[in-house]
Amino acid sequence: MKLTFLGTGTSQGVPVIACNCDVCLSSKPKDKRLRASVMVTINDVNYVIDSGPDFRQQMLRENVQDLRAILFTHEHKDHLAGMDDVRAFNYKSQKEMDVYCDINVQKALLREYPYVFSDFKYPGVPDVKVHQISKDEAFTIDGNLFTPIEVMHYKLPVLGFRVGGLTYITDAKTISSDEIEKIKGSQVLVVNALRIQEHISHFNLEEALKMIDLVKPKRAYLTHLSHLMGSHQEVSKQLPDHVMIAYDGLQIEL
User: Mean pLDDT over residues 126-152, rounded?
Assistant: First the structure.
C-alpha cells in the first residue's frame, strides 16, 4: 500500500491570499500547501479521499491516469469542490465513478452538483455512482476493507477512514472513545493539526500530539495545516522522532 499526500493545507491553502506572513512568503516547497486530500494506492489501484478545489491540479501533478473511487470525509467546500473533474476519468475509462459518502455529503452533492443527478444529463457531465456509508459499518472496495471513523468537527460529524494499517483523520476536534478503539493498532496515523493556538473545530498541535500518544502508531503525520502553524522546518524541530509534518507530494509505503 502507498499513501500520497495530494494536499496538506487547510481550507484557504498556504500561502493564503493577501497574506504577507513569513510562512506565506516562504519560497520553500514544503511550505506550499494545497487543500487536504490523500490518495491510497493498493495493488496499483488508486482511491482518493476528498476532492477539494485543487483536485485537478493534484491529479495532474501526480500524473494519475486512473482513479477507482472517491471517499468523502464531509461536505465542506475544501473537501468536495473539485468533484466535477472526475469526468476526465469517466471519459478515459468509459465507466462511472464510485463515490462513498454519508447522507450529509450526499445531500451536499445533490445541492452543489444538480446537473450530475438530473433526469436529463447534459453531455459530458460527471457520471458518478453514490454509495451511502456511515460510521456504523465497514465496507469493501475491490476486496479492501475500509472502516469509517467518526470524529467531530465542532458540531459536524466527519468520517475518517482506516484501511489496513493506515488511518486518515482530518477536521477533528474531538473523537469518542468508541471511535478511538477503531484506530488503535494502526501502523501509520495521519491526523489534522491546524495551528499552535487552540481552535474551536480543529486539533491544534498539542491536541494532535496527545491523540498520537494515545493511539501509539509506529509513525504519525500531521496534515490540514494552516499558515498559523509556522514553517515546516521550524515546527519539525519540535516534534517527536516518530511524528512528521506531511507535505504536498509526500509518498509513504506501508
Answer: 98
Buried b (16+ CB within 10 A) or exposed e, 160-186: bbbbbebbbbbbbbebeeebeebbeeb
Q: For 19-50, write each residue's pLDDT tens digit.
A: 999 999 999 999 999 999 999 999 999 999 99
> Cα(1)–Cα(164) distance, rounded to whole angstroms?
9
Structural domain that includes position 7? 2-253
Per-residue confidence at 163, pLDDT binned at 50, 70, 90?
very high
Question: How many structural domains are present in the chain?
Answer: 1
Please name which of 144, 171, 183, 187 lies closest in space to residue 225, comparing C-alpha atoms: 171
**Measured distance CA(93)–CA(85) in Å, rounded:** 14
Which three-class secondary structure state does DSSP give residue 211? Answer: helix
Mean pLDDT of 163-167: 98
Give pTM, 2 decimals: 0.97
3-class SS of residue 207? helix
Q: Where residue 30 sits, what CATH number does that domain have?
A: 3.60.15.10
* pLDDT value at residue 154: 96
From residue 48, give the alpha-carbon distance in Å to each of 45, 67, 98, 191, 194.
10, 8, 11, 16, 21
Give the long-range contacts of residues 86-93, CB within 8 A, separation 24 or more: 86/51, 86/126, 86/128, 87/124, 87/125, 87/126, 87/127, 88/59, 90/126, 90/127, 92/65, 92/66, 93/66
